[in-house]
From TrEMBL:
Belongs to the arginase family. GO terms for biological process: arginine metabolic process; urea cycle. The keyword Transcription regulation does not apply. It comes from the Bacteria. Mn(2+) 1 binds at residues 99, 128, 130, 229, 231. InterPro entries: Arginase, Ureohydrolase, Ureohydrolase_dom_sf, Ureohydrolase_Mn_BS. It comes from Ideonella livida. SUPFAM superfamilies: Arginase/deacetylase. This is Arginase. Its EC number is 3.5.3.1. CDD domains: Arginase.
Length: 305
């Protein structure tokens, strides 16, 4: 991964979330020295600063969606910013913000892959499948819907971002660490054929085997996108998220996951989502996230050359 050109893009909004505070995520990652730490690995880091978008009006849902117009505007801005970095050969790291922004980010990566004639593989590291629709979720919080929207299920304002509906095929997605799925969402995930490695699978088969399957058939023409929701991690080690679900990967399991992604040499873009410093303990979740991102860029905790 040496001589990689990385661009940090802050998206300070909690517009799609059910709790306030993810808007402070980008700054917490900067306080935890994300840029300087990556630079110690020979990565050239450019911090593009923060995108700006509509404030969070904190209103109840309308027709099944909370803040749909604002979510759409934020995602359009994220889409354009991520796409611009990919076009000039840089690796964008989106600093969230809540996970609804994965829609703008991944639709941009998919558009770039169409331009470049590349295959796309999306690793969705999350406690949640985020495959809800307004019909399936009573909350209307759009951070539970981005994967469904990317696969063409959702309001046109969201599914159309990036110019092609659906933006991606469910077959390109591997979900890892899932342990909280609504009943209706579970049926929908099965119908759509998403490949899900839930915590039961990881418990039974181990993280190594899980990642071997999730990364299988990557080739030189594959762009690997990692969408890392910090609630993927066990809340004992990562309390700073709005939607904690007990029983997530341990520190070592998460490190192995990141190291095996790094070993592929295919990482092309990254989202770091749902970090909520308002719920954190002395920024420890941000520091852990930075530690894991460092592993994605080649820090191995093992004594290997």
């Amino acid at each position: 991964m040496h001589n990689t050109l990385v661009s940090l893009i802050g998206a300070p909004t909690d517009i799609g979330a059910g709790a306030r505070g993810a808007s402070m995520g980008p700054e917490a990652l900067r306080v935890a020295q994300l840029g300087p730490i990556l630079e110690t690995h020979g990565v050239h880091v450019l911090d593009r600063g923060n995108l700006s978008g509509p404030a969070n009006p904190w209103l109840p849902p309308v027709d099944g969606y909370r803040h749909l117009a604002e979510v759409a505007e934020w995602n359009r801005k994220v889409h354009e910013a991520v796409y611009a970095e990919l076009r000039v050969g840089r690796l964008p790291i989106l600093l969230g913000g809540d996970h609804c922004l994965g829609l703008g980010s991944i639709s941009a990566v998919a558009r770039h892959c169409r331009d470049a004639g590349k295959k796309l593989r999306v690793l969705w590291l999350d406690a949640h499948a985020d495959f809800n629709t307004s019909a399936l979720t009573p909350s209307g919080n759009i951070h539970g819907m981005p994967v469904a929207c990317l696969c063409g299920h959702g309001p046109q304002e969201l599914t159309g971002i990036g110019g092609q509906v659906p933006a991606i095929s469910p077959k390109w997605v591997r979900q890892i660490g899932i342990r909280s799925v609504d009943p209706g969402e579970k049926r929908f995930v099965h119908e759509q054929g998403l490949e899900v490695f839930d915590m039961r699978f990881i418990d039974e088969m181990g993280m190594r085997h899980t990642m071997e399957l999730a990364l299988a058939t990557l080739d030189a023409n594959t762009h690997l996108h990692v969408s890392f929701d910090v609630d993927f991690l066990d809340p004992d080690i990562a309390p700073g998220v709005g939607t904690t679900v007990p029983g997530g990967p341990t520190y070592r399991e998460a490190q192995l996951c990141m190291e095996m992604i790094a070993d592929t040499g295919r990482l092309g873009s990254l989202d770091v989502m749902e970090l909520n410093p308002a719920l954190d303990v002395r920024n420890k979740t941000a520091a852990l996230a930075v530690d894991l991102i460092e592993s994605l860029f080649g820090k191995s905790t093992l004594m290997r050359a």
